[in-house]
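User: Some background: our group keeps a shared notebook of sequences we're curious about, and every so often someone picks one and asks for a predicted structure to add to the entry. Today it's my turn. The entry only has the sequence so far, pasted here. Could you supply the structure so I can complete it?
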Amino acid sequence: MIRYLTAGESHGPELVGIVEGLPAGLPLSSREIGIHLARRQQGYGRGGRMAFEKDAPDFVSGVRFGKTMGSPVTMKLPNRAFQKDKDGWPEVMAAEGSGEGVEPITVPRPGHADLVGAQKFNFDDIRPVIERSSARETAMRVACCATARIFLKQFGIEIGGHVLRIGSHGYDSWDAVRRETDDIIRDGAETLYQKADESEVRCLNADLTDGMTEEIKQRRKEGSSLGGVYEIIVTGLPAGLGTYTQWDRKLEGLLGQAIMSTQAMKGVEIGLGFESGSRPGHEVHDEITYEDTFRRTTNRAGGLEGGMTTGMPLIIRGVMKPIPTMLTPIDTVDLHTKETVDTRYERSDVCALPRAVVVAENVIAPVLANAFLEKFGGDSLDEVKKHYATFTP
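Assistant: Of course. Here's the predicted structure to add to the notebook entry:
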């Protein structure tokens, strides 16, 4: 079973990640992982920090001569903000000492982990909460999860994502999205993300891209922020991954957890999702045919039935709220004085959705890789390949 842990703070010395359970013999390079880390830093509406953080993982353990050894893979990513010492971060985030002279943060931002995190851990300074709950953590999460994505690609399983909506600009129907994506993903889902990456906001539609960028400009002028909706598609999955036999092993639940555990996510759906509730059954369920193998005439279920893959492309949608750090303040209460004050501004994005798509693409990879290993397991890549070669859907 592949599992991972991340450690580190947003402005600490570095982020660290440990990935356990990768089969031995998997080709793994910092360059390939770095592709997705670079993609995570791109996108219109990004904040100032993305301009100077250039992420590339350093392997500390688990990789020898470009291949995994079956032991835990450890990676680290330096935080250049700390290393440059531009804003006194070595003093603010010092591991030792009394902290004397470091100004505490006592103004929580509504919509962030600030207040409840301080209440939970009994902090009188919100800085520890801000540092760990920051989306900077997703850099290491992408690095860790990209290892599982690289494993899946060995079996022709590809992942891609694109933006459906930012603010008031977006596709008006499920069918409109399918017309945009179905031809593209015939070549594999990586073609989808490569095409989407040509847009500043990772939207496949040029007219919608223009509308989204204009709305981001408008919200930036207002000192506000924007969220939106994205879609992740996975191609090449065989039928029968996952199970219906226990509630906690159904893929829908595991994939939902992966998406919802990512910062600022407020909703997830599979296939038609919420739209299923407003359609009659004949416009929801996918008819089954047989031509050499079982097929569906449509894919409204989004590639999952009864907690298992159907062999059709997996379609997941996520909703990201507008990020809570905004240039124009809103009301909050000071942690110490209990008086109403304006929120403070931490350097941040106006719209992080184009970057969040890359995070979502990667966080689902360990879920799918574990379902794959459960069915075709082995301790080495060669062993897994031998098991998979005998599979008949």
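Suggested note for the entry: Residues 1 and 374 are 8 Å apart (CA to CA). The chain has one domain: 3-389.
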